[in-house]
Amino acid sequence: MDLLVCVIDDETKLNALLAGFVDLGITGATVLQSQGMGRRLGSKLPATGELQALLASVRPENSTVFSVIETQEKLEAAVALAQRVSGDLDAPGTGIVFTVPLGRVVGLAPELSGADAPSGHEPRANAGGD
After folding, report:
1. Pick from 61, 4, 68, 5: which is nearest to 33 by CA?
2. What residue ranges define each of the domains in the chain, with the CATH number in brackets?
3. HSE-CB for 13 with a 13 A CA cutoff
4. Most exposed of 25, 82, 94, 120 (fewest Cβ within 10 Å)?
């Protein structure tokens, strides 16, 4: 079991990432609005002209997605998806993806698989009527 962390610099790509997770059977993730250190500190960082130009062009906020992934197969598929959606992660200003092995997780809802996964990308109806 691993924690997948995706920082997506282009917020317009977030819905494609989340919809792709659902297609993979990953139905739980937490999304936070975040800000990189370069944007936060701005001109206080020593930087070359090239880096200053990059910092000026970076969007003010990122989306950081956390998801606990139970199988190695889904983890690999989710990382590949994040790379496809974000573009070349080796290029500056695109994002970062990393995983962290988890020893213990409490309170995790079971992942949906196959026929149980929501079809399309519509929100799942609440069976409890809330």
Report:
1. 61
2. 2-105 (3.30.70.120)
3. 20
4. 120
Two structure tokens written together for 125 = 């109806």
pLDDT confidence of residue 109: 77
Give the H or E element holding residue 20.
Answer: helix 14-23
pLDDT digits (tens, 9 = 90+) for 42-80: 555 555 555 555 555 555 688 999 999 999 999 999 999
Neighbour order of strands in the sheet with 30-34: 30-34, 62-69, 2-8, 95-101
* Neighbouring residues of 126: CB distance < 8 A, sequence distance ≥ 6: none
Long-range contacts of 75-79 (CB under 8 A, 24+ apart): 75/2, 75/4, 75/99, 77/24, 78/4, 78/21, 78/24, 78/26, 79/4
| DSSP conformation class of 114 | G
The span from the CA of 78 to the CA of 50, in Å, is 32
Of 108, 38, 124, the residue nearest 67 (C-alpha): 108
Q: Global pTM?
A: 0.72
